[in-house]
Amino acid sequence: MADKHFQRLHPEQARAGLAERPNALLPDAREARHHAASHLAGASTLPAPPVAKPVAAVPPALAAWLSAEGLDPTRPEAPGQHGNTPLMHAAWRGAADAVTALLAFGVPLEAVNHDGNNALWLACVNGEPKLIRTLVAAGVPIDHANLVQATALMYGASAGKQAVVATLLDLGANPHLVSQDDFSALDMAASVECLQLLRAATRRQAERSTVH
Predict the structure, then answer these.
(1) If you count Cβ atoms within 10 Å of the first and of the last residue's Cβ in the chain, which end, N or C, has fewer?
(2) Measured between alpha carbons, how far is 140 from 118 in angstroms, rounded to an integer?
(3) Are strands 27-28 and 44-45 parallel, antiparallel or unpaired?
(4) Domain 60-211 has CATH 1.10.3720.10
């Protein structure tokens, strides 16, 4: 068992002890202002204890939505089924108000589910352009690639979702990225409309590269 004995020393005793042990550690447990005013030579202040960051209260409306969706109403960032976070779930459901509330609460924007998909991918599954724009504007990575290196643009193209493809391209999604099978969004286009959008985008990028 550790010896918890300690002894109070008078200044003269302290000086004598320090003379015998010049390399002794001298922690000063007083407040920094008192240490700055006067202290023994060689004494150093103890680090301040960490201040616990207050946990933000979940807004009642958001907590109610989380609870109704079977999610933890006290943890808006916690993943649920299939690793989908509440933000992903809200994006998939097209719940614009919940998405706005979750973004305002400060949930992680780069979280991914068990397939490596982010909230933007789930918004593309829903297909609402305004939701896609909201997430990209908030900072959700537009060119994020999942476990098979597929992007949201590739998903939109392969699903034949013209509005999704048009929105992502307008927001700057890269049409030249390829999946692990070396297919681009253009290769995956499942409709004439998506094919035309992607051809036009790649042509514009090629023209800009030539000019510069």
Answers:
(1) N
(2) 8
(3) parallel
(4) no
d(CA 74, CA 207): 51
Task: Locate the domains of the chain by residue range.
Answer: 11-45, 60-211
List the one residue out of 144, 63, 74 whose CA is nearest residue 110: 144
Alpha-carbon distance of 154 to 69, in angstroms, equals 29
pLDDT at residue 179 tops 60: yes
Alpha-carbon distance 45 to 35, whole Å?
7
H/E stretch holding 186: helix 185-188
Please state the φ and ψ torsions of residue 163, each to the nearest 5 degrees.
-65, -40
Say what angle helices 162-170 and 129-138 make with each other, to 10 degrees. Answer: 30
- Give the residue carrying structure tokens 């060689």: 42
Q: Are 164 and 129 in contact (CB under 8 A)?
A: yes
Backbone angles phi, psi at 45, to 5 degrees: -75, 150
pLDDT tens readout for residues 14-34? 777 777 777 777 777 777 777
CA 54, 59, 65 angle in degrees (round to 5)? 130
Cα–Cα–Cα angle for 63, 64, 68, rounded to 5 degrees: 120
* 95, 130 contact by CB (below 8 A): no
- State if pTM tops 0.70: yes
DSSP 27-63: EE-S-HHHHHH---TT-EEPPPPPPPPPPPPPPHHHH
Of 55, 117, 45, 129, the closest CA to residue 88 belongs to 117
